[in-house]
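Researcher: Re-running this chain for the archive, since the previous output was lost when a drive failed. Same request as before.
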Amino acid sequence: MSKKSRTKSSKTPSGSPTAKKKALKPRASTPTKSAKTQRTPATKSTGTLAKAGSHKAASKQLNSSKSVAPPAKAKSGLAEGQKAPAFRLPRDGGEVVTLADYAGRKLVLFFYPRADTPGCTREAIDFTRLASAFAAADTAVLGVSADPLKAQEKFRDKHKLGIPLISDETHQMLEAYGAWGEKSMYGKSFLGILRTTILVGADGKLARIWRNVRVDGHADEVLEATRSL
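Model: Regenerated structure tokens:
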């Protein structure tokens, strides 16, 4: 082979500029195309998720507002000086108790969340301890919760309680006296009994209302209020 032909053949390998250019073209176009296809669905899915999320949040807000609004109204509607709402409910022992039974006398109604729980037990024992002092002040005392009568009677017997316990399973009295409403625990909201005490005067009107009661010393505070009424 001549020197001229050898030189010519050495210039035609695949590493020439022309070959490089041709080889690079398909590589450059492939990622561009795949990136384009990846971006489009991502944008759509984000928009869809955001839209679905907003619908979910809106429906959740509507549902919660429906269930919470009525108790809030009932609670704020009761004020001192108003006439005490009438009630007729069963008590431990199977008798029926009404507001009219206490006409002309002062009456203490303490609403507690649940029978035989620590706070409610202490509160009921404190009112029992002061039962004779309340009687001397011409004041009757009634405990009220949504527990069934059997639970109330078991509660009474276990702790030797000396005050009548009313069962309001339908929550009618609880709502009328603003003792039923929204509560929260561990970041979750729910409806339940709000620890509340009401002092009804001998004239049948609400003399004092205690909301969000703290049990310690509460019965003694209520006794003092009845004595000064």
